[in-house]
Amino acid sequence: MGKPQRIGILTAGGDCPGINAAIRGVGKTAIVKHGMEVYGISSGFSGLINKEVQPLSESALSGILTLGGTILGTSREKPFKKSGNLGIDKPKIIKKNYKELGLDCVVCIGGNGTQKTANLLAEEGLNVVGIPKTIDNDVFGTDFTFGFDSALTIATDAIDRLHTTANSHKRIMVIEVMGHHAGWLTLYAGMAGGGDVILLPELDLDIKAVNRYLLDRAYKKKPYSIVVVAEGIERPKDFISAADYIAAMIENGTKIETRKTILGYIQRGGSPSPMDRILATRFGSHAVDLIATENYGRMVVNVGGQTSSVPLKDVAGKTRLVPTDHSLITKARSLDICMGDVCIV
Ligand code: F6P
User: Fold this and answer.
1) Which of 136, 138, 196, 276 is catalytic?
2) List of domains in the chain
3) Pairing mode of beta strands 128-132, 225-230
4) Is 314 one of the annotated active-site residues of the chain?
5) How do residues 204-219 score in pLDDT, each as one tens digit?
């Protein structure tokens, strides 16, 4: 086998700011440094199944660094999932198309689900390299994913804005932050935005303790309170959202007027932050250096501030949750921020 010459890039799962910066990092490094040909695969793994690819020239990669979303499109297609596949052997089709397209490697940019599929494709004999992205920051094996810093900036700005209206009306404001089953975005945005109560899926929730804490704040003449809650907290089935549940429990328990805000997809949209642009560029460029040395079946990571890589098989199928003894949780408790389990009152 000669040196790798033709690579494909796909973006799968929920989008986030910084994906285009990563595509640019992959593409430009591949073309300029290694003289490779680059193909963009449309709509995640669907594009590999339907053979929807287009060549990406260097000029096609110009001007996309600051763009939100993904120029390639994305989907939540899971080719290895048996149900709903109507007996179609999608992995077999992918292998056939990969061969017919003459690809030497596919760079899979995505979150946990994408890295799991990338690993399964590697087990099927395809050359793949993974790049972790998500606003949730929950990809196992890396300290940070790009998308997280941009979403953190947006969520923090939203919380900042709630302070003034909460103060005017002397209300409790509940704000729900994304993050799937992980509380990273809620923890960081809650701390950066000066949340009084921060509720994470990783910690137990004692709503009575939360209400005692909020009533104590009112007793101490604190005019309002901000409650930052992760979308993934456990709740009874009859509550559609975490914010609905927490706001209802608080208003019932404290009799203080309570309002809720669900931030939603605003957190995932728009231009990436400077830190995300840099992380995504580093990840993209590093992925191609791995390909150039035929170091396949790996995912690029950022550990201790350094870019490196880990075997996909070591991270696939795992989720990185917030450790219950995380230093930021300990610091929050030191500042008398209520974390929902035990509140110092
Ligand atoms: O993984 C990113 C994320 O935005 C999560 O925070 C959220 O739970 C999920 O995607 C929403 O997924 P969808 O785009 O399928 O609605």
Assistant:
1) 136
2) 6-147+272-304 (3.40.50.450), 152-268+324-334 (3.40.50.460)
3) unpaired
4) no
5) 999 999 999 999 999 9
